[in-house]
Design a protein that fits this description.
With about 300 residues, the chain is of the alpha/beta class. Helices cover about 30% and strands about 20% of the residues. It is built from 7 helices and 12 strands. The two termini are about 40 Å apart.
Amino acid sequence: MWPETKFSHGFNLKNSTSAYHQSLIKTAIIACKTLTNGTLNAWEYGNEPDLYRGSTRPPNWTITQYTEEWLAGTRLIDETIASTCPDLAKASTKRYMAPSMSGVKLGTGFTPVEAFGAQIDNQKIIKQYLYISSYLAGATQPGVTLQRVLMNHNWTVNFVNRQTAFASFFTKAAPDIPLILSETNSLSSGRASGISNTFGAALWVLDFGLYCASQNITRIHFHQSEGAAYSAWQAMPNKAGPPATRPPYYGKIAMATFIGNEEGVQIVHIPRDSVYEAAYAAYVNGQLKRIAAINLRELYPTQSRTASSSV
């Protein structure tokens, strides 16, 4: 196990039968016994519930009905944990994620904003706000290329700004809950080999991560799956090839190194004239410590050209 690593556990909300409730109790007992000794980050109850409508819920299932189910389920979870793992039932350790929807969909009536309006956090147990399924573009979307999308600073900026614009509505309802991008990555569905698994994608990871940090996004959860082009590594041999470290891994290492682990770090975005350049400054307690300059111009090994830039 990795030292000092915390884990989030997801409980199933998608099913709502009596057998499911018994399964929920059994799962809560196992989960709380496993995530003791400070290893719990948060509980998640339900993943992408907006997609339940028309599948396991009626098409007209409302945010109020969802909220009622969420509150009933979390009460059952809390009661089970209180009798099994009393230390995790203390008010100071109750930690739930906010509703994890399938994307930013203003105007649908089924977003975390409406859920908070329906008093989903009337017990003040939600400690993290989560977006879910936030991807830069679709893997099969027409016009998607490495240079046009991933190695394009404006595309990244506009994508992140859409998330933070939605967050501005959310923070009015829950100003003390930090913003997290969860299940995010470059191109959705994990495909797009030749784009998401290139070293250009590593530069995108660095640019994306630093811009998120500059916009007060507290954490990013990069989605990984076995064989996906955007994964940082492949742990086992499969049709995609042997076990390997992939280019996005190096982008994450560069991002973490630049942000550092000092107290009082602030990442500042430095605007550039070209969409193929990005620059950032890292301040520690108000003092400039590091500058990152990223050249996003695509270059193949068979090409030979020179270019200059200044910061």
